[in-house]
Amino acid sequence: MKLEKLLKGFERAVVSFYEKEFPLSFPTTHFTIQGNKIVFKKPKWVQLRGNQKACVLLHTHNEYVKKIRSVTLYGYAVQKGDFLEFEPKKCYKFKQGGLNTLKFIISGKRRMREFLKRETSKIKNSTGKF
Amino acid sequence: MISTIPGWIEDVFEKYLTAEFTYLDGEMPRTIAVLPYYDAKKKSIVITTSPAFYRKVACIKKNPRVSVLFSNPKYSGIEERAVVLVLGIAKVSENVEENLSYLMNLMINHKDCWKKTVLTKMAEELMSPLAKRLLDWYVYRILIEVKPQRLLFWRDGDVENDPEILEGVS
């Protein structure tokens, strides 16, 4: 995963992790790339236990919520002093416009067909008819 | 004890254009950018999704403990840089026809601000003949209504410091 290229142009990130009852998130502009990891400055109130599953979202849009660009990273985060070291394992990226928008529409239509097929079969199975 | 959501936080809910919504898929947090509505009468944050992305809905039904982070005041007209993290319980509503009229009402009754302009423009775009053909699957919305249980907030936006906390909000 080429993190420098992936994160180019993003000034802020949202880091999420799970603690006791609820998922927690914080926004940050303090992050650097170190090899295959992203290092975040840790807010005082954040306490991670060992190597925890975490998600990092970076997204931008204009004033009309168009020209959307986003990168979502899933991986593991570990606390090291005042910092969090995040190692991404999976990445999803999206940039609105052109071919990407077309792919989004086609994929949405396909997913909707699959959803309707599943729902129809659920109804058939529960009532024996449709 | 039940705490009331302060007016300035309700203002953040209504005016911040986008937010970050996090749900759990097992122990993996999944965060997505959303354009949330705020139902001031029910004191709940309303997020919508297409049935095409049902996996998310299934995860939320399995574990309704979610969070919504309002962290970016850009385009909101609010000068302070407040950050509010809502920890809440989500309720899913899958009646897409009822959902559409509910959302329409929320939009019509939305406080006048830039977000209302954006929501109205988006709704108009989805009504165009081309969008009706291409985005028919996108128009139907499942609602995820988040009832806040606890609010963590930083009025000055400095999330590196400990948050102020409001428990048992309504």
Would you mind describing this structure in some detail?
The complex is a heterodimer of chains A (130) and B (170). Chain A has 130 residues and is α+β, with helices and mostly antiparallel strands. Chain A is 27% helix and 44% strand. Chain A has a 7-stranded antiparallel β-sheet. In chain A, a hairpin with a 2-residue loop joins strand 6 and strand 7. Chain A is globular, with a radius of gyration of 19 Å. The N and C termini of chain A lie far apart (48 Å). The model of chain A has no long low-confidence stretch (mean pLDDT 91). Chain B has 170 residues and is α+β, with helices and mostly antiparallel strands. Chain B has one domain (7-156): Pnp Oxidase, Chain A (Roll), CATH 2.30.110. In chain B, 32% of the residues lie in helices and 34% in strands. Chain B is built from 6 helices and 8 strands. Chain B has helices at 7-15, 54-62, 96-108, 114-126, 129-134, 136-139, and strands at residues 19-25, 28-34, 37-39, 44-49, 65-70, 83-93, 142-154, 164-167. In chain B, strands 1, 2, 3, 4, 5, 6, 7 and 8 form an 8-stranded antiparallel β-sheet that branches. The model of chain B has no long low-confidence stretch (mean pLDDT 93).
pLDDT < 50 runs, ≥5 residues of chain B? none
Number of helices of chain B: 6
Mean pLDDT of chain B: 93
* The CATH fourth-level homologous superfamily of chain B: Electron Transport, Fmn-binding Protein, Chain A
Looking at the structure, the CATH topology of chain B is Pnp Oxidase, Chain A
Instruction: Specify the structural class of chain B.
Output: alpha+beta
What is the C-level CATH assignment of chain B? Mainly Beta
Radius of gyration over C-alpha positions of chain A, nearest whole angstrom? 19 Å
What profile does the largest beta sheet of chain B have? 8 strands, antiparallel
Helix content of chain B: 25-40%
Q: Strand count, sense and closure of the main sheet of chain A?
A: 7 strands, antiparallel
